[in-house]
Amino acid sequence: MIFVNKRMQNLKMKKAFLLKAILLLLLVTSHFCLKAQNLEEDTVKRDSTIKPAGKPRSVFIEVGGPGLALTINYDTRFGEDRDKWGFRIGAGYYNTGANWVATVPFQINYLKGSGNSFLELGAGTTFVRSEGSTNGSFFQFDNITGFIGTATIGYRYQQDNGGINFRIAFVPILYDEGIIAEGGISIGYTF
């Protein structure tokens, strides 16, 4: 009987030791998870419903410009700023019956400005697929498939926290026969 009691006592001691070892381990490692109040922290209460403005993104419809005809475009910045470097990409189509053109404009652009007004500078390329005849009533397109070079020098109105945007630009088009001076105007929404 004494042997059984001693065995039970040994088992209880081992359990107690294991429990104390686990508690000590938790106590030692808890400082990795726990944090005290930082007295240097900003203590001003802020409205939690106001979210900081993120990377501005825009969608817009453009007449003329790098897409040559009528395009829908997406524009965003590479960083979180409303200005600096970004890109735009779009898709366009225009048909006059005997003539049609489909385009995919892509440009890297740079915005410089403050408030809601920006100077926009850009350069890129546009994929063009068109078919046409001399019987076109309004526009006449050549039968081409390929890429053309584009540039943009323009003005952009873009609200600070989203909303309507407006663009107007001078857009030189570079192709194998020279340069065409074109313009573009667009309206869209920034979110």
What report would you give on this structure?
This protein is mostly beta strands and 191 residues long. 15% of the residues lie in helices and 52% in strands. The chain contains one helix and eight strands. The chain has an eight-stranded antiparallel beta barrel with strand order 1-2-3-4-5-6-7-8. A hairpin with a 6-residue loop joins strand 2 and strand 3. The longest helix is centred in the first third of the chain and has 28 residues. It is elongated, with a radius of gyration of 33 Å. The mean pLDDT is 84.
Itemize the secondary structure elements and their pairings.
Elements: H1 2-29, E1 57-64, E2 70-77, E3 84-95, E4 100-114, E5 117-131, E6 144-158, E7 163-175, E8 178-190
Structure summarized in a few sentences:
With 191 residues, the protein is mainly beta.
What tags apply to this protein structure?
1 helix, single chain, mainly beta, 8 strands, eight-stranded antiparallel beta barrel, elongated, 191 residues
Q: Report the helical percentage.
A: 10-25%
List SSEs in N-to-C order. HEEEEEEEE
Structural class: mainly beta
Largest sheet: 8 strands, antiparallel, barrel
Poorly predicted regions are: none
Compute the CA-based radius of gyration. 33 Å
